Amino acid sequence: MSQVTVIAPPVTRAGRRVGAMLARLARDRSGTSLLEFAFTLPLVLAVGCWGIELSNLAICNLRVSQYALNLADNASRVGLDSGSGVTTLRETDVNDVLQGSKLEGAAIALTANGRITLTSLENVQRSFSDGTSDAAPVQRVHWQRCTGAMSGTGYDSTYPTVPITAGSDGTRATAGMTVLNYGSAGTPITAPLNTGVMFVEINYLYKPLFGSLYISPRTIHYVASFIVRDNRSWVQVYNPSPAATASTCDKHSA
Fold this sequence. Notes:
Layout: H1 13-27, H2 32-75, E1 80-81, E2 87-88, H3 91-104, E3 114-124, E4 138-147, E5 177-178, E6 195-206, E7 218-227
Antiparallel strand pairs: 1-2, 3-4, 3-6, 4-5, 6-7
Helix pairs in contact: 2-3
């Protein structure tokens, strides 16, 4: 039986170089971190963007809450001192505090994407221009003023409302609506005896940073109230000449 001898081809210089390069490549670990980062980048981005979205939502909630508190506080202070110790609230005063909220909320387009309702809840004994008067203090939603472009369910006030003529003069017909309390059933607001409360409701459309990827658009709702700080006249919201345009709740503009 004959034997077959296999003779390997000689290794050329080029072959040795290729073999050396492959050996070095097999031992090379310099790209490990880059590969790991490439594999984890989608997860890191997803979690990071989710955190940014939640943080933005939390900040937006805080802002809307503070806007409501500031407006209620400002509305409880404004008015013209008549010199007799009684302060009269004018339409221009109401417009000023609403404009202040608009400017304060410009960073989130508060009035373009939301609706603000300012309500005067009063617990006083009223005398009317026809000579009649209340027999005892009565709690009423006397008048309301609004600003903001949004309208409809979820944006207009979610609580009882009064006609746009309410508070425009001193007649019984514009005295507003009698209520026991105001606001949410779980946290009702009641005005103290012989004074009133400025009640603010804000409904704001939150638009997510990343569309609907993490959370859907939603309405942010906050209320706030402050007791009126001075001896205010509860007859009406005055509008002396030159008359200002009242921010009644039939208007919807940013």
